[in-house]
Amino acid sequence: MAMSSAFASTDTSYEEIRLDLRSWPEVVNYLEHSKGVILPIGSTEQHGPTGAIGTDAMTAQAVALEVGRRAGVLVAPTQSFGMAEHHLGFAGTMSLQPSTLLAVLHDLVISLATHGFERIFMINGHGGNIATAKAAFAQAYSTASLRGLSVAPKLRCKLVNWFLAKPVMQEANRLYGDREGQHATPSEISLTLYLTPSLVVKQKPLPTPAPAGPIHGPDDFRRRYPDGRMGSDPFLAKPEHGGVLLEKAVLALGDELSNFLGDS
Ligand code: NI
Questions:
Q1: What is the whole-number distance in angstroms between the Cα of residue 183 and the centre of ligand 1?
Q2: Does the 14-257 domain belong in CATH 3.40.50.10310?
Q3: Where are the domains of the chain?
Q4: Which residue in 145, 163, 151 sits closest to 36, CA to CA?
């Protein structure tokens, strides 16, 4: 499995399940045999002094494409901007306010539901999106019903967090123990190194991080966690760990997707 080519348009296996490469008649044909779609959702935010700003979007997309490829389920383009207000004290972070993200996710779900998609499976790479995504689902169910969409009674949305999948957390604990931390974790950084090997040379030993703790606004975050990390040691990250973590995430989320598609 050549995951380094996950984002290359020449990868036939991924081409087959990418919504952005399909024509509308192909989507109509797809809907005749499947009502499921995967939407990767991430964030564009600082990941410590050595991690890529796109970490949460890259990782969610990679997991989503591989889950979709194995299941033959379409994967929508990644929603790469998430709720990252608390990271705005660090250069390069681009955040949507919770109310904006709620509106975006609501509109994306309703767009898909309008065409007949009944099962929207969001694969998430960022903890800060969770509360807002769930609120968006509640609003989308209401809108689908009020607009009288034919799929309304059958519409289901589900958010799954690849980094919280039990086998992923167990492996992260085995590899890194409490140096996994809460943000800019070696597990997520490992996956980015696996996907984009050119990032490896940027990794370097870092001083002891501030311990993980509360998160408030951007100024408070910067004061508590001056280099952006929360209790993590991303220098432990290795590309080969990323490959293992990806496989564990894909297997766990693939099972969840299969149950979700079969739900009544
Ligand atoms: Ni992250």
A1: 6
A2: yes
A3: 14-257
A4: 151
